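re: that chain from earlier
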Amino acid sequence: MFQLSKDTIALLDSIERRIDPEVEDDFIEQWKDFTFDRFKGDVFTPCRKKVTPHGIILDGVNINDAIDDYDLMLRNQMMGVAACLCRTRNNICIRSNYGTGIMTSIFGAEIFKMPRKNNTLPTTRSLNDTEKIREIVEKGMPDINTGFGRNVFEFGELCLEVFEKYPKIKKYVTLYHPDTQGPLDVSELLWGCDMFYAMYDEPELVHGLLRLVTDTYKAVLDKWYELVPRKSDINPHWANFWHKGSIVLRDDSAMNLSPELYEEFGAPYDNELLETYDGGAIHFCGRGDHYIDIIAKMPKLYAVNLSQPQYNDMEKIYQNTVDKGIKVLAFNEKWIQEHPRAQGYNNSLHV
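^ sequence. v structure.
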């Protein structure tokens, strides 16, 4: 048994006491009603019908410390759960929280920790070397237990071991899948911006990397879901939404591509992962209206999470999401207040 610190144990004990099964069951049922079109209002805003005050107050955990210490990582994540129990909208879930560089670190990219004062998740440095990318592709599948891969799985094992002592935490605090990004994002993070030039100059190499990244993505998630089985109906992601299906893909890098390039280099791999894992959601920051019609054709895309509607032609977003039965999750509440057009979508928008 992993030895936890007294502070972490005290926090877990407090959360176990504070979790009200009736409240959490009702909260999840609200999300199921929205997800499966039983919600009859306009814009969905989940509401935990009772909140509980903090049972214990601890000093925050700097993420740089948590990265190097499983006890502190658990405390860091469970402090988020403790805070969510004080709020009406947030779901209680945690993850192996090692940043955007999990997949790239498995391929050998150098891990880069941000300055401690930033208290921000680490990432990895891009290789910026086409010949090194060629070597990676020729070498084939990496050892998924290297880099942050080892931390992801070991922390998951720790959580499962610890949660056995806490029946309410075990049932209601979901350990959702780590930040494995998406094929395009991982490839750009690994290669660097030269990948975009290579789409014209060496498209076979780009496809070779995307194929390898997608296969490695599957290997990582297969091992993860063998360790932590996914829920069969809806799954949480971050503290602000639940979604139908199993995964959330990040498509931030697609913002840099024309629709034609995304359709060639992004869509086949995104769609393959959605098909493999019973569907899910796609997230993007910035602009995505130029490829929204492409992802909307993916049969198992059930939801979209966009963080900056002001950079998008929202009419095109609506036409290719809510008008087609695809949910828009964690939408910008201020945008809805300022744009009445967004308020007319029954059963589709969540804030």
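The chain has a mean pLDDT of 96.
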